[in-house]
């Protein structure tokens, strides 16, 4: 057990988080630059998001051949996914495969949740303390904590009196939860809730879904991958790599250049119908203007609402589920496996919280304004304090005793989502202000990790020991993030976690960069070519 700061506990770089980002950063800094590195991780194994997200139905909505590291030819040739979309257990197998192949676990300290991170100005390094009292120092602190790792259980009166069990989907127990003969209540119908409903309903005695905001969803059409496809991916990985890096969202499909107004109603419906049958996130790529033009968006929105009304046989449920108040893909668009069909079961109920809000939770279940629901288990599929929450949890103090929580009082301010003024030598992989959650995450992660590696390599070659951005460029970058977001419908959506609006009291700032990964990559490369313009290296 490590318990004091000695030379052994001093590193060139400490990376926080052992998910996709942390592992690749370790490979880059340790194996490519020869630095002494350590990953600190809260969980007891690798996996990041997928370590925690084991809820029923948890599955990635990026197609598996794209939800992969692309930095290693060998890895691409050695690994085969089994389904169109990878399930949570298979993603953990993949991450473990990567950890083993690159011998990463020897430099990861599990069960070490970082509780405090402080920059020492006299030494130009970071001090870290973990929950169990271990202390470390590092020249560079690199956060790989993910964007959606801070589970949010809403503050509902009486939860602590509930005599049953309750779980948040983002913090799901390792030993499977049994729903057999149980009356279950699920709060939340975002991407997570929509995946969980059909699986819970199929296993529980009864499921009551508590919906605050109705949501769109398109069928995922998950299926096992056949050998031909697996071979094709292995043979063609160079083309896939090139493709994924040039599409705005890093997904394996093109966004159409046609506008909704380019086609007549019949043609449009035929296009939507084909995309519905094919399934997946490419539904939103059927027309170029779906997320920029409300009239165009309304056509897709209406198409999906019709599908919901056709699928759901109970008219009351169909009305509640199709009464959607925001544009399609204005929030992250879910994809599903038989979500709407699940409402045709006879062991399911749907409560419209807009009409009948939750008053409190008591020993026996959930009390709404009009009704009481007896429950054995409550599932919170209520989302995350996204993007800023995981970083603020590191309890970061920078120069002049500046606390990140104070610096970000009005919302996150970063330069390129990579660095924060006043916090030297701290890099934030997929931080607020970068494309991150608007893309296929492994693509955004690889781009950031490689940029950070190149930056540190440059500093080492030039003999610099400190890198810091400033307020001026951070403000300008914040304006750019807003400008780009305002060209889309995304910032106008109520309750969106992209804005922080899902967390009471959180400042509302549109957090991800919506200009697409290739454009963002060009900006980062220009900064690099121009001697790290916007950063002070000393
Ligand atoms: P989310 O999108 O934030 O959805 C949370 C749900 O909980 C919403 O329906 C929300 O209602 C509801 N809710 C929150 N607080 C509530 C309260 N106090 N009372 C009643 N309802 C409440 O969270 P998520 O579904 O976990 O998804 C978050 C993100 O994770 C996704 O957008 C996606 O990026 C990622 N994700 C990806 C996958 C995948 O790859 N397949 C799967 C799951 C999640 P309101 O809408 O009214 O706020």
Protein architecture, described:
With 538 residues, this protein is α/β, with parallel strands linked by helices. Helices cover 32% and strands 16% of the residues. The chain has 16 helices and 20 strands. The strands form five sheets. Strands 1, 2, 3, 4, 5, 6, 17 and 18 form an eight-stranded mixed sheet that branches. It has a five-stranded parallel sheet with strand order 7-16-8-9-12, covered by helices on one side. The radius of gyration is 23 Å and the shape is globular. 48% of the residues are buried. The model is unreliable at 1-5 (pLDDT under 50). It binds NADP nicotinamide-adenine-dinucleotide phosphate (NAP).
CATH superfamily of the largest domain: FAD/NAD(P)-binding domain
CATH topology of the largest domain: FAD/NAD(P)-binding domain
Separate helix tally: 16
* Class of secondary structure makeup: alpha/beta
| CATH class assignment of the largest domain | Alpha Beta
First-to-last CA distance:
36 Å
CATH architecture annotation name of the largest domain: 3-Layer(bba) Sandwich
Q: Radius of gyration over alpha carbons?
A: 23 Å
Low-pLDDT stretches: 1-5
Anisotropy-based shape: globular
Number of domains: 2
Bound molecules: NADP nicotinamide-adenine-dinucleotide phosphate
Count of distinct strands: 20
The largest sheet, given as strand count, sense and whether it forms a barrel, is: 8 strands, mixed
Oligomer: single chain
Percent in strands: 15-25%
Helix content: 25-40%
Average pLDDT over all residues: 97
